[in-house]
Structures are given as C-alpha cells and as structure tokens.
Amino acid sequence: MAVGCPYIQDSNVTVRHPLARGACLPPSDFTPDQAAAAALTAARLAAIVESSDDAIVSKALDGTILTWNASAERIFGYSAAEIVGSSIFVLIPPELHGDERDILARIARGEHIAHFESIRRHKNGALFPVELSISPMRDGAGIIVGASSIKRDISERKRALETASRLAAIV
Q1: pLDDT tens digits, residue range 110-129?
Q2: Phi and psi (nearest 5°) for 48?
Q3: Longest CA span, the chain
C-alpha cells in the first residue's frame, strides 16, 4: 500500500474512498459496500459539477482542456466534444496568454489562486469578464497533474456597477 493515497482507481476514474484515511488500497481490497459508497460519492460529485451555474473546467499543466461542464458550454459556447483536448489559450485573449502561463506555473508549484477577475473569449469571439478560482489537481500519489477552475461570467455584475456609478454621478 502506498501512503497518502485515499482513492479508488480504475481505468476511467480516481475516486476518494469515503472510509480511507491516508492509505491507498487497490480496488480489490474494498468490500462491495465500500466500493458502492465510493461510486455513489463520485456520482454525487459529478452531479454537483454538472448542475453548477459556474463553468467548471479542468486542464493539464500544459493547458490542455480535460473536462468541461454544461455551464462551460453555456458560458463559452463550445460543446465538450468541441473543446476537450484543445488548448485553454483559445478562451483567452492573446494579450493575456502570459498571465495564463504564470497561473499554470503557480499551480504546478501547488498554489491555489482564489477569486480574481480576468477576460475570456466566447466561441463567437466576444470578450467578457469572468471571476476565476483555480486549484491544483493531484493524482493518487499526490503529484500535481493539472488544475481545476471555476469561472463565473460577471458581465451582469459589471453592468450593474457601471449603471450605479453613472447614477451616483448624476446625483
């Protein structure tokens, strides 16, 4: 058993086992009830991701998009079939590519980047403001292999603030 690896792994998914505490057990070491509990946990987490109003995207450390939820489809205009396997840089204006490279380097060092604002590009080319939080993704051995990000379109919030500012200037 490897230490520090509380996950069930199979060919398609790595799931944190709800009863594991610091030990990596091969799937054959789990009872059927434990395996069922882990599968249920994975299904619940998948449902949370898919039902979120925010875009939830994962990417490899080289920027390759790995996963893409339904809200990412709505916010960016790309279906998962169109975008998974592509570079995250297609969503980022060229003048911000250096910022994204810096973010990927910070993630590779294990940093979490919370709630910052940036600009992203829709499939139709339109630019829009987003708030992002990005966290390292680790494999079963604890090695950072990518990043998960939550992106929220803040266009409406920005418009409301601009309107409030204009109204305050009038008064």
Answers
A1: 999 999 999 999 999 999 99
A2: -60, -50
A3: 70
Please name the residue that has the structure tokens 């079963």. Answer: 140
Q: Are 77 and 122 in contact (CB under 8 A)?
A: yes
CA proximity to 72, closest of 148, 158, 16, 160: 148
The SS3 call for residue 29 is helix
Token code pair at residue 33 = 């009830």
Burial class (CB in 10 A: 0-12, 13-18, 19+), 69: buried
Query: Could you tell me if 100 and 88 are in contact, meaning their C-beta atoms sit under 8 angstroms apart?
Result: yes
Q: Name the DSSP class of 109.
A: T
Distances (CA, A) of 162 to 4, 11, 45, 93: 49, 50, 37, 23
**Cβ atoms < 10 Å from Cβ of 24:** 19
pLDDT digits (tens, 9 = 90+) for 145-160: 999 999 999 998 888 8
* pTM of structure: 0.72
> DSSP of 50-106, one letter per residue?
HH-SSEEEEEETT-BEEEE-HHHHHHH---HHHHTTSBGGGGS-GGGHHHHHHHHHH
CA gap 152, 55 in Å, rounded: 6
